[in-house]
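Q: Sequence in, structure out?
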Amino acid sequence: MLKFVASALAFLSTSVFALTYQLPDDASRVVGYNQQHIVESGENMAMIAERYEVGFLHLLAANPGIDPFVPGAGNTLLIPTQLLLPDEPREGIVINLAELRLYLYRPDAGEVDVFPIGIGRIGRATPEMTTHISQMRENPSWVPTQKTRDEYAARGEPLPWKVPPGPDNPLGLFAMRLAYGRGEYLIHGTNQSFGVGLRVSAGCIRLFPEHIEYVFGQVGVGTPVKIINQPVKYANEPDGRMMLEIHEPLNRSEEERSEPSNLRLSREQVQFISQDGVDSRLVNQLLRQQQGIVFEVGAQG
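A: Exactly. Output:
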């Protein structure tokens, strides 16, 4: 069951508003339920996505044909707050790049917090990895990599060797370094909301300021981090329902977005959609649409 958690109710020491889900007691992976939002005059999709704690691209995919800048007062939007938990151990932090979501598991509380994230853009993709947090940094300085400085210089925007803490620092107020490669990958905040829910970073994982502050307070050095890229999630639920959630794959270039998807399915995914009781017509429709919405595609007899 999805709970809308406000600081006055659950997180008394923080100002975070998060999507917090009760972890199922059994093998179920379905949590939450979708919502609807009636657009008000002056709203845009970015404002609505931030209000409901969902990613901007995810909200767009769930509502095809809606103008993101002028969604139209009175239109009803589907808010994709039902999801399938990733098929990974429910511990530490799990990031699914294809969803642009970060899962923070708190098994002692029987809950998982889910946050929209910004990730690496095409050409600077965030890598998949199994790692852990190696460093916690409050009020971090930003030391751009040589590649990042070269990119900015080519645009006529030279960067200093080091950007000190403060309002101009793109890392925001909190950063967590990952033990991967030379340690250049961070989970961090931002000094502006733009980019959360999008592929715009140089490879790091970006959260809203209030979200990173909360996550920073829940984890520590050594917390496991698993970064995966799973555009297709599926589940045979204990009650017999067959559930499917499909996101647009990350490896598509801007030119490919207008072309039919060449989404590749794993052997396990093919076996799932080939089961008796699965609505193959609905599955084919979902494979084309890639809306990131959980659908019941069949039931076991």
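The domain at 117-228 is CATH 2.40.440.10 (L,D-transpeptidase catalytic domain-like).
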